[in-house]
Amino acid sequence: MIKNNQYKFSFGPWNISEGYDPYGPATRPPQAFDWKLGKLKEIGFDAMMFHDDDAIPDLDSKSPEQIRKGAKELKRKLDDAGILAEIVAPRLWFSPMTIDGGYTSNDPKARKYAIERSKKCIDIAKILDCSLIVLWLAREGTYIRESKNCRTSTDYLAEAIDKMLAYDKKIRVAIEPKPNEPMDHAYIPTMGHAMAIAFKTSDPKRVGGLVESAHAILAGLDPADEMEFAISYGKLWSVHLNDQNGLKFDQDKPFGSNNLRSAFNQVRVLERNNYGSKGECVAFDVHSFRSTKEEHCVDHLSNSRDTFLRLVEKVRSFDNAKAQTLIADRNYQALDQMVIEHLLGK
Predict the structure, then answer these.
(1) What's the total number of domains in the chain?
(2) Residue 54 falls in the annotated catalytic set
(3) Would you say residue 339 lies in a domain?
(4) Active-site residue, from 21, 34, 46, 51
């Protein structure tokens, strides 16, 4: 294994899950946050991702003082463990207020709730010394087109981001696009949409993106291209690496599990653009297979990191000069075979 001298690795508490799905109950016992933090440290990760209510459970029922106190306690735990808070994200999709969406709800009271909840998220992030707020716009879309106006909803989204940017001048907002699930039609389905809405806000320099591999695949796109598209704007601020078996539900499989060549190309994009040099993390948004036993419930995380680092080796040992010669000759058959043989270790 190569020495990791560039990358910092991250995952979230939800990535150690109980194995329940819409068709069946949990298959593993729940674990307390402190246990998950201990495991993160034990397997050598550097940072943790948070939803606001991962940081402060039952957030909507807490007073501002209770929120501040809880966030300070969490910060002490992270400092004691030597762990950074990479991102904090408002979890808007569980509340009864957001059945019809948060920022794009038809109900002005729901839109107000979403903004106030986002401000609480920012307050928590500030105490955790984290400046990156991630928006996964889970219910910002429609089940039927006639129920919402896309132009109006796009304006609502930009206005909501503007209010977040005005609330704290030091934060950056990273949009994590996804084309569907839970909504049938999402308003910000791709990185191109995320980049576009950034330029609709009051401070485009502070609005960027987070690419999740599986979300790009669900949009019928290549994750590596989505990453490099954002990089071309200077706006790839985090990645959620995982894998996906086709256009199905969001599977969050271990990185490289389904398509090793796609994983190779994602790492290649990060390597050639010096990703991580400005403190960006490599996050793995992966889940154990449902049948995984309790004693193996973090293997998917360490396996994903190991695959990533092995692929870093493959990227760094790839004969780019030879590849460029083949490209100049338009000998793409030979280039294709060269990549396959390199991954096979020939």
Answers:
(1) 1
(2) yes
(3) no
(4) 51
Range of the domain at 175: 8-318
- Residues of the chain whose pLDDT is less than 50? 1-3
pTM to 2 decimals?
0.96
CATH number where 297 lies: 3.20.20.150
Does 335 map to a domain?
no
Mind giving me the DSSP string for 15-52?
A: GS----BTTB--SS----HHHHHHHHHHTT--EEEEEH
* 12-39 CB burial, b ≥16 within 10 A, e <16: bbebbbebeeeeeeebbeebeeeebbeb
Selecting among 52, 53, 54, 252, the annotated active-site residue is 54
336 within some domain: no
Catalytic residue status for 162: no
Q: pLDDT per residue over 171-214, tens digit each?
A: 999 999 999 999 999 999 999 999 999 999 999 999 999 999 99
